[in-house]
Amino acid sequence: MRLIVYGTLRKGEELNWVFSWASVQHLSKFETMEISGLRLYVVGDCPGAKIGSKGDKAIVELWEFSLSKTREASLLEMLDRMEGVDYGLYKRNYIDTPKGKALVYTYCGNVRGCPQIKDWKEWQNSNKNKKINIPNSKIVICK
Q1: In 3-state terms, what secondary structure has residue 79?
Q2: C-alpha distances in angstroms, 52 versus 11, 28, 49?
Q3: Under 8 Å between Cβ of 51 and 95
Q4: Is residue 127 helix, strand or coil?
Q5: Per CATH, is 2-126 categorized as 3.40.50.300?
Q6: Which residue of 28, 57, 83, 138 has the lowest C-beta tally within 10 Å?
Q7: Domain boundaries, the chain
Q8: 3-class DSSP state for residue 83?
């Protein structure tokens, strides 16, 4: 299974602990890369991605897991809960990467007025003490 993470699930970020859960980190490898076709936005205290055009670029981590079907299903169930899939906050999508197709969670809400970024970690480091005013956006339920 291949998974793209671009924000709070990246190495060193606050939700990366999920990959230590059930020892999946020992059954995985990751690399940081720039990929095409993904736009990143700041949506509150976290990033949200939208599928874009080939000209759109984002810095992400591509994780590759060697898991049993049962462990993979458990990991996806946990990620779905964390990403609010049942509430229509994020949804699963697949995107082409240099290593093949990979799962990515994309944001369903309105990003109008939200800052577009290329790299969540870089944005965080350069905006640590800055308060960003994100417009109130209505969550669009993903279908």
Answers
A1: helix
A2: 24, 27, 9
A3: yes
A4: coil
A5: no
A6: 138
A7: 2-126
A8: helix
**113 Rama sector, left if φ>0, alpha if ψ -120 to 50, beta otherwise:** left
- The span from the CA of 123 to the CA of 139, in Å, is 23
Query: From CA 97, how far away is CA 1, in angstroms rounded?
Result: 13
Higher pLDDT, 89 or 17: 89
Extract the tokens encoding 8. 């709070």
Q: C-alpha angle with apex 38: 117 to 137, nearest 5 degrees?
A: 60
pLDDT digits (tens, 9 = 90+) for 29-48: 889 999 999 999 999 888 99
Q: What is the pLDDT of residues 97-136, one digit of tens each?
A: 999 999 999 999 999 999 999 999 999 888 865 555 555 4
DSSP symbols for 54-78 = TT-EEEEEEEEE---HHHHHHHHHH
Amino acid, res. 131: K
With contact defined as beta carbons under 8 Å apart, do 76 and 61 qualify? no
